[in-house]
């Protein structure tokens, strides 16, 4: 089971009667069948790509990787165009699957007499007012955040970047970490927040909780599996001595630290409480952000510092722009689906409009098939599998900033993590940090720090010093 599957399994609600519970089970079965149909359709695609040594046929997964991550720009561009051409031919089939999933959910919500977005907010332990306050803060800072995309376009001698160019990192980060180096940097970056964290990391590494070996059968990314009754976790990722590997290790150690504080629960498969996605990533993103900031602060070479800073900003803008575009699309789709049938052409148009708003109009072209490529749209168990990541990112960034000025932060943070699931996230934040998430002020602060990072990026020379 992957970390994503593990966390999805926790998002449950008990506020339904027996009749509705039966209806919910039937709906879930239908939704899982449609998710399977989506995955089968996607995985059966064959994409012909000219990869430098002639045209070859690739699977959807291979083509997606080539389109976003291939080292050869020409191959990457060819893969992107070929993939989109293939998706265009199948767009009506994908649209039919997504439309059926929305129809099932909307029918279920009508039975429960709730708004289609109410259930998602409840699952994530937040109110509509908190989410609106977060997006209002993002809107307020949108023009300054979009400035980074224009800077990157200028570096590429273009007026504006395309979606594909913006989403494929161009940062050349030449920085190697041994496992020992990574563990040392992670520990030092977090000791100021809580002196117990480095001790915990040492315990995790020396007691064999972490598998860092590179093996072909390992899935991409990493995951952390908790064993709460034993107070332990197991982490798996392929460590390749890159900064990205160090970041992933820090991220998974954050999950392990979070799970360590949740010993009060016998397992994550509880029914009376919920493990909200908004809370699930708090410690993990805080850990990785602290590491990246530490590395930037301690990097003396200007070219390397600029590359790492740009890499950091690109990752953060993904939370604020790409994920927001997905959220706006899904919310708009459900709203329109209450009164009309939406075909593939309308979905493309809607997706492009939402991306343009999310990116502040800073791109020259947008991606018409995001709604096919992002598998999160087709998750059977969790609608709106998008905004919780933005919420969790900004919450962790805000808490990291608070840790710098609050002498008692360590104790508050431990209690906050330990009480996950006992109260809705919004109430836990107010209880332990006296922070009102319905006020935009909290959300503005981490965004202003991002703008400072963008200003620093613009000021840093490209040459080494």
Automatic annotation (TrEMBL):
Keyword check for Metal-binding: yes
Tagged with keyword Transcription: no
Domain of life (superkingdom): Bacteria
A GO molecular-function annotation: metalloendopeptidase activity
GO annotation, biological process: proteolysis
Domain Peptidase M3A/M3B catalytic stretches: 64-443
UniProt KW keywords: Hydrolase, Metal-binding, Metalloprotease, Protease, Zinc
Cofactor entry: Zn(2+)
Co-factor remark: Binds 1 zinc ion.
One Pfam entry name: Peptidase_M3
Family of this protein: Belongs to the peptidase M3 family.
Protein name in UniProt: Peptidase M3A/M3B catalytic domain-containing protein
Organism of origin: Metabacillus indicus
